[in-house]
Amino acid sequence: MGRRVFLLFVWSCYRWRLDLRIKMCTQVNAEDFETVHHEMGHIQYFMQYRHLASLFRTGANAAFHEAVGDTIAMSVGTIQHLHAIQLSDIDPDTISQGNGLPAS
User: Fold this and answer.
1) For residue 89, is it within any domain?
2) How far, in Å, CA of 1 to CA of 50, rounded?
3) What is the percent of the chain with per-residue pLDDT over 90, rounded to a whole number?
4) CA-CA distance, 19 to 50, in Å (whole number)?
5) Which domain does 83 fall in, by range?
6) Which stretches within the chain are classed as H helix?
7) Residue 78 CB-half CA count within 13 A
8) Under a CB-based contact definition with an 8 Å cutoff, are residues 102 and 68 in contact?
9) Is residue 14 part of a domain?
10) pTM, to two decimals
């Protein structure tokens, strides 16, 4: 108990279509929502390079591979995305785009 187990796999249902799935023990919360999407980022990375030689599939640097997962995880946490998938009642068009800095 207390440890998290990730079972990641790719399931091919059709000859030319891949059905990507993650089997993971989760709770309905923001942390697991981001974690699942981070792992999906890894899977997408592997799938995009699956037809290339092993040298290219492994990536130049482990940090780059993690950055791909982090980018996907951060992108799903935006108000625009959460509103689009109906997880937020906040309309992104009503939010000020300002960052508090004076306009140049």
Assistant:
1) yes
2) 35
3) 0
4) 15
5) 27-94
6) 30-49, 54-57, 62-75, 79-84
7) 12
8) no
9) no
10) 0.69
